[in-house]
Amino acid sequence: METTYDIIIIGSGLSGLICAYILSKEGYKVAVLEKNKQVGGCLQTFVRDKRIFDVGVHYIGGLDEGQSLNQYFKYLGIRDALKLQKMDLDAFDTIGFDGDDTVYKMAQGHERFVDSLSQQFPKEHLALKNYSQAIQDICHKFPLYFLETDKPYPDNFKHLEINAQAEIASITSDPKLQAVLGGNSILYAGRGSSTPFYLHAMVLNSYIESSWRCVDGGSQIARLLVKQIRKEGGAIFKQKEVDQFLFDGNNIKAVQLTTGNTLNCKHVISSAHPQQLSRFVRNEGGRLRKAYLNRIQRTKATPAIFSVHYTLKPNTVKYINSNYYNNKTIDVWNTIENNAKDWPSTYLALTPKTSTSAIYADSLSAMCYMEYDEVKAWENSFNTVSNQFSRGADYEAFKEEKANMLLTQLYKKFPQLKGNVLNMYASTPLSFRDYIGCPTGSLYGFERSYDDPMRTALAVQTRIPNLRLTGQNVNIHGILGVTVSAVLACAELVDREKLLTDIVAAT
Ligand SMILES: Cc1cc2nc3c(=O)[nH]c(=O)nc-3n(C[C@H](O)[C@H](O)[C@H](O)COP(=O)(O)OP(=O)(O)OC[C@H]3O[C@@H](n4cnc5c(N)ncnc54)[C@H](O)[C@@H]3O)c2cc1C
C-alpha cells in the first residue's frame, strides 16, 4: 500500500529540518523533500582546493549557557556535538571605512560592548548604554526570542514600526558612531528607507550576547539534525523537487515532484521561497487568494550577493577571530543604493575556522551586494552540483573580473593577502537562485519594512487548511530567526504549551 505521510516538509534548510525533528519526535510520520543533492539550504558547504567553504552561515549568536539559541539547540539534541569556536570577546565584529585607519570594535556582552565602544567614542558612553538598552528592550517584545514563554505578545504593532536609522540617530548625534552601529548592516540587508529597528536589534543583540564560528563549516548543524530526525523515525529525501500540490477538496492530499512521482500526505509545511506557492497551487479554484499571491510576487526582495572564497597558501595568513565589515563611506544606510555606482559599497571579510590549524587560515571569504541585473544576461542557465551546466566563458570572465576588483579592495585592509592567494571561487546571485530556489538570488528573502510591517511578513497559516509556511520569510532570517519560525509552524500542529515547556526544560 502507498505510504501516506502525516507531514511533508518542503526544503531541508534549518527551518525545515527543525520542523522535521520536532514533529517526528511528537510521533508524526514525517518526510522532508529537498531539491538539492546536499541538505541544509543556506547551511550547505562546499570544498575547493581541499578547503571547506560556507555558502551562507558564517557565524552564530546566542549560544552561551542561558541564551536562547543555546536552549533551542539543547532541545534539538545538537548543542553538545557542535564544533564551535567562540569569537574574539573584544571584537566579534570590526567595522572599518575607506580613508579611516581606525577599526571600530564590537565586543561580546552588553557591558563590554558599551565599554569598548566608549573607549573609541568617549563622549558617547551614555548614548551607547541607551543603545544597548534599546535593542534589548525591543527584543523583549518578541516572547520566543528570549524564550519568555509565559509572556503575551504585545497588543499593538508599534514596536514593528520604528525605523532603524532614525532610532539610532535619536540615540546618538555622532555621525561616525551612527555609522559604526549600522556598519555591519549587510547582516540584515539594512536600508535607511525601510529597515525596522527590531530587525537590526534582533540580529545585533544575538551576536552581542555571544558570537561563534562553526569549525569546518555550518553544514555540521544540518548533519546533526538529520541524525536526530532519523533517530525519531523521520525520512529525508534528497534530489526531490516539489512541483505542485494535488488536492482533495480544500486540502492537499499529495505533493507531486518534478519527476511526476507523488507522495501522499495529511499536512504540508513549506520552507521554500513563498513565490513558489503560485507554482505549487497552480491556483486552480482560487485556493490561495489572488491578492495574497500578488502580494507575495510584488513584495520587495532583499538584495542579492556576490561572494568570493580566496584560497590561501599554507601557513601564510593568520586566522582572524573577528569579522571585518568595510564601508566606502559613513553613509551606511544607503549601501544598497550606492552599490551600483561605487562597487562594492560595503563588504564582509572573514577567515573561516578550520580544525587543521590553530594559527593560520586556509582561506578568506568575502561577500558584497550585487544587483541581479548584472547577471541577467545568463539568467536562462541553471547550474548546481546535480545539474552541472557551464554558464559560459563570458560568465567566468565576469566573475573573475569582479573577484579581482574585490581583492583590490581587500588588499587595502588586509595587505597580508598580497602574494598569498592561490585561487578564487566566486558565486553570483544566480548561484544562490539555483541552489536555494529564491528568485533573483535574494540574500534573506523578503525585505522587511517599518512603514508597512504586515505587508512584508507572512503568517504561518495559509488559506489552505493543511498548508503551513516556515522559514526566513515567516519570522526573520538568521539561525535564531528561522529556529523560531520552525517552532511557530510546529506549534500549529502540536500542543504549543507542551512544546515550549519541553524546549525550556531541555538539558
Ligand atoms: C550568504 C548568506 C550568509 C548568511 N550568513 C548568516 C550568518 O552568518 N548567520 C546567520 O545566523 N544567518 C546567516 N544567513 C541567513 C541564514 O542562513 C538563513 O536565514 C537561514 O539559513 C534560512 O533558512 P530557511 O530554512 O528559511 O531556508 P533555506 O536555507 O533557504 O532552505 C530552503 C530549502 O528549500 C529547498 N527548496 C526550495 N524549493 C524547493 C522545492 N520546490 N522542492 C524541494 N526543496 C526546495 C532549498 O533547496 C533549500 O534547501 C546567511 C544567508 C546567506 C544567504
SSE inventory with pairings:
Layout: E1 4-10, H1 14-25, E2 30-33, E3 45-48, E4 51-54, E5 60-61, H2 68-76, E6 84-86, E7 93-97, E8 100-106, H3 110-120, H4 125-139, H5 164-171, H6 175-181, H7 197-209, E9 211-214, H8 219-231, E10 235-237, E11 242-248, E12 251-257, E13 262-270, H9 277-281, H10 290-298, E14 304-312, E15 323-327, H11 335-338, E16 346-350, E17 363-370, H12 393-413, E18 421-427, H13 429-436, E19 467-469, H14 479-490, H15 496-505
Parallel strand pairs: 1-2, 1-13, 2-10, 7-15, 13-19
Antiparallel strand pairs: 3-4, 5-9, 6-9, 7-8, 11-12, 12-13, 14-17, 14-18, 15-16, 16-17
Helix pairs in contact: 1-8, 1-14, 2-15, 3-4, 4-7, 5-7
The protein binds flavin-adenine dinucleotide (FAD).
Write up this protein.
With 507 residues, this protein is of the alpha/beta class. The chain has three domains: 4-44 and 55-83 and 216-298 and 446-505, FAD/NAD(P)-binding domain, CATH 3.50.50.60; 110-210, no CATH class; 303-443, no CATH class. It contains 15 helices and 19 strands. The chain has helices at 14-25, 68-76, 110-120, 125-139, 164-171, 175-181, 197-209, 219-231, 277-281, 290-298, 335-338, 393-413, 429-436, 479-490, 496-505, and strands at 4-10, 30-33, 45-48, 51-54, 60-61, 84-86, 93-97, 100-106, 211-214, 235-237, 242-248, 251-257, 262-270, 304-312, 323-327, 346-350, 363-370, 421-427, 467-469. The strands form four sheets. Strands 1, 2, 10, 11, 12, 13 and 19 form a seven-stranded mixed sheet that branches. Strand 1, helix 1 (14-25) and strand 2 (30-33) form a beta-alpha-beta unit. Helix 1 packs parallel to helix 8 and helix 1 (14-25) runs parallel beside helix 14 (479-490). The two termini are 40 Å apart. The relative contact order is 0.18. The mean pLDDT is 95. The structure holds flavin-adenine dinucleotide. Flavin-adenine dinucleotide binds next to helix 1 and helix 14. Its EC number is 5.2.-.-. It is an enzyme of class 5 (isomerase). Residues 14-316 form the Amine oxidase domain.
